[in-house]
Amino acid sequence: VSPAASSTRDAGGRNAASRVGSVAPFEIRPADAAVHAAALRYLDDLTKPRGSLGRLERLAARLCAMQRTLEPRVDAPATLVFAADHGIAHEGVSAYPRAVTAQMVANFLSGGAAISVLARSQRMSLTIVDVGVDADLAQHAALLSRKMARGTGNVCEQAAMTPAQLAAAIAAGADAASQAISHGANVLLLGEMGIGNTAIGALLLHQLSDWPLEQCVGRGTGIDDAQLARKHALLTRAALRTRGAGIAAGDATNALDYLSECGGFEYAALVGAILATAERQVPVLIDGFAVTVAAAYARALAPAVLDYCVFAHVSAEHAHRALLAHLDADPLLDLQLRLGEASGAALALPLVQASATLLTDMATFSGAGVSR
Amino acid sequence: VSPAASSTRDAGGRNAASRVGSVAPFEIRPADAAVHAAALRYLDDLTKPRGSLGRLERLAARLCAMQRTLEPRVDAPATLVFAADHGIAHEGVSAYPRAVTAQMVANFLSGGAAISVLARSQRMSLTIVDVGVDADLAQHAALLSRKMARGTGNVCEQAAMTPAQLAAAIAAGADAASQAISHGANVLLLGEMGIGNTAIGALLLHQLSDWPLEQCVGRGTGIDDAQLARKHALLTRAALRTRGAGIAAGDATNALDYLSECGGFEYAALVGAILATAERQVPVLIDGFAVTVAAAYARALAPAVLDYCVFAHVSAEHAHRALLAHLDADPLLDLQLRLGEASGAALALPLVQASATLLTDMATFSGAGVSR
What we know:
Two copies of one chain form a homodimer.
Chain A: H1 10-15, H2 33-43, H3 55-67, E1 77-84, H4 100-110, H5 114-121, E2 125-132, E3 143-145, H6 163-182, E4 187-193, H7 197-209, H8 213-216, H9 225-244, H10 255-262, H11 265-279, E5 284-286, H12 289-301, E6 309-311, H13 320-326, H14 343-361, H15 365-368
Parallel strand pairs in A: 1-2, 1-4, 2-3, 4-5, 5-6
Helix pairs in contact in A: 2-3, 3-14, 6-11, 7-9, 7-10, 7-12, 11-12
């Protein structure tokens, strides 16, 4: 990724007018409609009542359309968790102290976190990408160091990051995703860790959608009413600051400006990872609220990206259900999760794999000698 | 199981007054409340925000309470699919001909059906129990032959089965479940196959709940409006017949009478399997509408049985959601499935396994050095 000139291509073209400049364009082709239709026809020939596998049939057809085959494969999953700190966390917007970001990265790597357990039990690679943790992390085989800074600026006072940092963070995410795919992954699971990042997600959503802030702000990891009021007040300040800087809300062509103004590094990296995965025509499992916000930003840069997104779950975070509906997403699970870390994506993976395997491995009516 | 005398014990005691006589009692102890409370406390000490794994935490605590341990194990699943034919299928209540029951059993055994694919990909044993298929089935290592008859009587004209057949079918289900547990299974998945059996399930639900028949009847494998009207008319006849025989609806103490009057053999076997699994303090994954109806009958015989039931999903079958609510069930998935065969249970199994593994394998705050 470079601060490249404008492009006629999708993501690049829309960014040309941004005051941030432009990131290198991603070439994202829509999923294949003809393969999608062929997959739906094939599903009707399998030994089950038509449509009786419900949403898994629709998902199976989508996987076919993404991968341009009637034999989709999602048996080599890779999980990327992007971790970063946030200036706003100094103001106290979370139930946890800021140091927990680095502590949880250590916990991911030593195998004790939820995503570690899920990755291990599903025989799935797990890579943590440090794009801005406020600590010197010890080297580890599963840790990719792409630190932009030790946390973003405090969005109540200043821009979260510079345009150059934004481009670099998007590139870091894209690189991590491309690397996983080059190493053989045929489905990517994306997650995040960063104390304070549901606050930033709410602000990003507010900017992009122009929905009232109350609709966007939630309890994150579990704050009480007083903390929620404080979080709302801080984000109101931050939103006023960016509008004071002349950046109107609710305009998809301003998406890169919102990202550099609000942060965080993990959001920018997630946007890059989603775009790069879609460019490679690989399905990407979107985890909870934060990753869904990143998917909304990726769509603002390249609408076709949603063809490759599989929304894992609707979480307990306040704005998630409305955001998913806005994206026409059909999340697989509704388990009242509110953890992040790609945990919801990991829990949904077996359903994604089952949908592919049912399509490829079930018998047809004629093959099995079953009457229609 | 014998047509035993009354008993002071739970399931047996309640059956003493039944005109069917009694089945041997099952001794079902409630899940352990103290272990449940200890599990919830332990979950709060794991490295995640309190409650952030949502419904999986509640499920993990339930598994602990069933198995009387803080180290629950659900890593040795066994699937039992009970297959039988129904006299009413001659009247045309399904989108498929009656011969499909036997054809699908063959498909289960040769590996081409949905449940075959799911069992294989999850390394899970699959046993088909023939309790009344109208065909001579070839022997197979995964086929247990406990055929009561070649299908039940037509419930529009006569009782589905004799009291002796009912007792034998319940015993067949209980035996199959006990055998799987004795062979090492620590979680059971139950399913069914039988052309016409959503009609019978609707009738069974109507009898037990006294809900209007319209609330109980659905489209099964996918019948059209005219077929639905016909199904409703046939079941009205059947319900009138049983009331003419002096069996009042809506009375849990009549549960065995409803089963012998309405059928089917697979329902009776499922009731036995659920009761026997609960007696062994093993979690049982309840599949779709038919198995949920069987769970409602098992509860009528022994209320504590629900402590051991994990409801896998809410299906697209009309009455399923209301029935689950009536049972205070919290189904894990909502995928618009309407297939049966234990397919929904198999799809939910990874979530059940994840809930146990997260509890046993995650680090604690103190262990991982993470700030609270």
